[in-house]
Amino acid sequence: MISKVLIANRGEIALRVLRACKELGIATVAVHSTADADAMHVRLADESVCIGPPPSRESYLNIHQIVAACEITGADAVHPGYGFLSENAKFAEILDAHGITFIGPTAEHIRVMGDKITAKQTAQELGIPVVPGSDGEVKPEDALEIARKIGFPVLIKATAGGGGRGMKVARTEADLEEAVSTARSEALAAFGNDAVYMEKYLGKPRHIEIQVMGDGMGNAVHMGERDCSLQRRHQKVWEEANSPALNVEQRMKIGQICADAMKKLKYRGAGTIEFLYENGEFYFIEMNTRLQVEHTITEAITGIDLVHEQIRVASGGGLSVRQEDIVFSGHAIECRINAEDPRTFVPSPGTITHFHAPGGLGVRVDSGAYQGYRIPPYYDSLIGKLIVHGRTRVECMMRLRRVLDEFVIDGIKTTLPLFQDLIGNQDIANGDYDIHWLENYLASKTDA
Ligand code: ADP
């Protein structure tokens, strides 16, 4: 059993995990950098430990300090949240060696899914549909032959990739040589590894991901999908569940494929299997072996607390639900509220002079922000998530419009006005968008 959890994260997700622990009667330890001494998760935790100066490398990514904080406080488990050390296999191993439970999958599964080529091969072996492409790494001299086999346009991707870097499209044979060499040099600069592979380039896909949860002993369930097509620079901005593009049969079919794959893998914990979706087909792109920012919309439509489940399976207690117990009810939308200029997306750290979160039926605000809180400039700019639930998509959108009008965050710039714009857009109202929609929309506004 887990009796004390150290939360190796900050911001809204640290608070999210803390809330789940409190509900389960588990003691909490917050860790924080000197820049976060006043943070909400630090104030609400049972104990807190300062683990270093503001730069993440020296604090939230500092494994030694975090392990030491566990030993000082007697924490018997660590929840890594998302980002930071959440997909660091070495961290999971080190905790294991110290007899501390990592609330997440095995180090081996983190490693397999962390390498793009191994992840894709594994997915394919597990029966998950993947994007047609090269079998593994592509050498420049073989690129043309492989591209002809796949068919143009093709996408060159870094095997060590992340954040969309080291990715180049070749639309025709004439573009190929340059695309391969640019992708390789970008990959070398960003990841210290110039290996690339090749995939068919999909023109207008949606991003649809499946939430899975396994007990590590061969039981696994899926909790439906999230549509995260509305992105800017590969960063998700607005997510919804269910996807406006899927019907029940499609949902249950792809969901079951993913759940079956996780059973075969004996996967433990929460995971997300990400797909591009085009013309009725799913194409695996990657698996995230952690809780995701947008897990909240899955919670809204299933009523299941994913962090409770993570803690249960990490302590060997198994899943609290069987597949047939999981019922999808209504529609949920999450808006990511960033401390950024809503037009230029330049970060806007500073002090929040006035903060009023909306409320009412079907409304959830996950945020560590409060009146007087000073947003430090060192970390990512997500300051809160607004999640709205309704019985239908239309009801959810109506509620979102009302809630956006109620939300007040003064003293800094935020992306709230962007959502006020989107809620009035006809394509959004129709659910008619792909992964390029938002960037095109933003570009059209700047031109106008
Ligand atoms: P990263 O880890 O660098 O974020 P991903 O494989 O997750 O790389 O891809 C990031 C994004 O790039 C996807 O969300 C999608 O927008 C685009 N992308 C990836 N693969 C393809 C593809 N085969 N065709 C078209 N777009 C793609």
TrEMBL record:
<keyword id="KW-0460">Magnesium</keyword>
<dbReference type="InterPro" id="IPR011764">
    <property type="entry name" value="Biotin_carboxylation_dom"/>
</dbReference>
<keyword id="KW-0444">Lipid biosynthesis</keyword>
<keyword id="KW-0436">Ligase</keyword>
<dbReference type="InterPro" id="IPR005479">
    <property type="entry name" value="CPAse_ATP-bd"/>
</dbReference>
<dbReference type="InterPro" id="IPR005481">
    <property type="entry name" value="BC-like_N"/>
</dbReference>
<dbReference type="InterPro" id="IPR016185">
    <property type="entry name" value="PreATP-grasp_dom_sf"/>
</dbReference>
<dbReference type="Pfam" id="PF00289">
    <property type="entry name" value="Biotin_carb_N"/>
</dbReference>
<dbReference type="InterPro" id="IPR051602">
    <property type="entry name" value="ACC_Biotin_Carboxylase"/>
</dbReference>
<keyword id="KW-0275">Fatty acid biosynthesis</keyword>
<comment type="pathway">
    <text>Lipid metabolism; malonyl-CoA biosynthesis; malonyl-CoA from acetyl-CoA: step 1/1.</text>
</comment>
<dbReference type="InterPro" id="IPR004549">
    <property type="entry name" value="Acetyl_CoA_COase_biotin_COase"/>
</dbReference>
<keyword id="KW-0547">Nucleotide-binding</keyword>
<dbReference type="InterPro" id="IPR011054">
    <property type="entry name" value="Rudment_hybrid_motif"/>
</dbReference>
<dbReference type="InterPro" id="IPR005482">
    <property type="entry name" value="Biotin_COase_C"/>
</dbReference>
<dbReference type="Pfam" id="PF02785">
    <property type="entry name" value="Biotin_carb_C"/>
</dbReference>
<keyword id="KW-0067">ATP-binding</keyword>
<keyword id="KW-0479">Metal-binding</keyword>
<dbReference type="InterPro" id="IPR011761">
    <property type="entry name" value="ATP-grasp"/>
</dbReference>
<feature type="domain" description="ATP-grasp">
    <location>
        <begin position="120"/>
        <end position="315"/>
    </location>
</feature>
<feature type="domain" description="Biotin carboxylation">
    <location>
        <begin position="1"/>
        <end position="443"/>
    </location>
</feature>
<comment type="function">
    <text>This protein is a component of the acetyl coenzyme A carboxylase complex; first, biotin carboxylase catalyzes the carboxylation of the carrier protein and then the transcarboxylase transfers the carboxyl group to form malonyl-CoA.</text>
</comment>
<dbReference type="GO" id="GO:0004075">
    <property type="term" value="F:biotin carboxylase activity"/>
</dbReference>
<dbReference type="GO" id="GO:2001295">
    <property type="term" value="P:malonyl-CoA biosynthetic process"/>
</dbReference>
<keyword id="KW-0276">Fatty acid metabolism</keyword>
<keyword id="KW-0443">Lipid metabolism</keyword>
<dbReference type="GO" id="GO:0006633">
    <property type="term" value="P:fatty acid biosynthetic process"/>
</dbReference>
<keyword id="KW-0092">Biotin</keyword>
<dbReference type="GO" id="GO:0005524">
    <property type="term" value="F:ATP binding"/>
</dbReference>
<protein>
    <recommendedName>
        <fullName>Biotin carboxylase</fullName>
        <ecNumber>6.3.4.14</ecNumber>
    </recommendedName>
</protein>
<dbReference type="GO" id="GO:0046872">
    <property type="term" value="F:metal ion binding"/>
</dbReference>
<comment type="subunit">
    <text>Acetyl-CoA carboxylase is a heterohexamer of biotin carboxyl carrier protein, biotin carboxylase and the two subunits of carboxyl transferase in a 2:2 complex.</text>
</comment>
<dbReference type="Pfam" id="PF02786">
    <property type="entry name" value="CPSase_L_D2"/>
</dbReference>
